[in-house]
Write a structure and sequence with these properties.
Layout: E1 5-8, H1 12-29, H2 34-37, E2 49-55, E3 58-69, E4 72-80, H3 89-103, E5 108-114, H4 118-123, E6 127-135, E7 138-146
Parallel strand pairs: 4-5
Antiparallel strand pairs: 1-2, 2-3, 3-4, 5-7, 6-7
Length: 147
């Protein structure tokens, strides 16, 4: 168990692992208020799909997918552990999210990207729409991609 790869969260332990890496990056590293980081879509039984990435048992990333509008999925809480950035984990997490989104019948995805990682999402064929905005005291831009 907990080998290498990105998986859909199916156990409480995997959920806690996903939350742990989110806490490390968003709350500890970026200073996001914990009350903003966790919301109703993180509650057990909420209508959201969570992902966790492992490398030989080490927790290296996470993400969340939920329905924003009919046929449109919203990708949220995409994170890679600081010490593992630059190793393609972000791409692997997003590939798993997109594959699951297709399986769930979404026709397009949208996300709120921190502006400093906008180029990462552009490399995955997401396009920025609208103006920059602030979320959790961090500049973001909305991005979209047809599936």
């Amino acid at each position: 168990m907990n080998e290498t790869g990105v998986r859909v969260v199916t156990t409480d332990a995997e959920r806690e692992d996903a939350f742990a890496v989110r806490r490390d990056v968003f709350v500890e590293e970026q200073g996001v208020d914990e009350e903003l980081e966790y919301d109703e879509y993180d509650e057990p039984g909420a209508d959201a799909t969570h992902f966790v990435a492992y490398d030989d048992g080490e927790i290296v990333g996470a993400a969340r997918l939920r329905e924003a509008d009919p046929g449109v999925g919203k990708v949220e809480r995409v994170v890679v552990a600081e010490r593992r950035r630059g190793e393609d984990w972000g791409k692997r997490v997003m590939e798993a999210v997109e594959a699951t989104a297709r399986e769930q019948g979404y026709e397009k995805l949208k996300l709120h990207a921190q502006t400093r990682v906008e180029g990462f999402y552009e490399s995955l064929n997401y396009e920025s729409v609208g103006e920059e905005f602030v979320e959790a005291d961090i500049p973001h831009v909305e991005m979209r991609k047809p599936l």
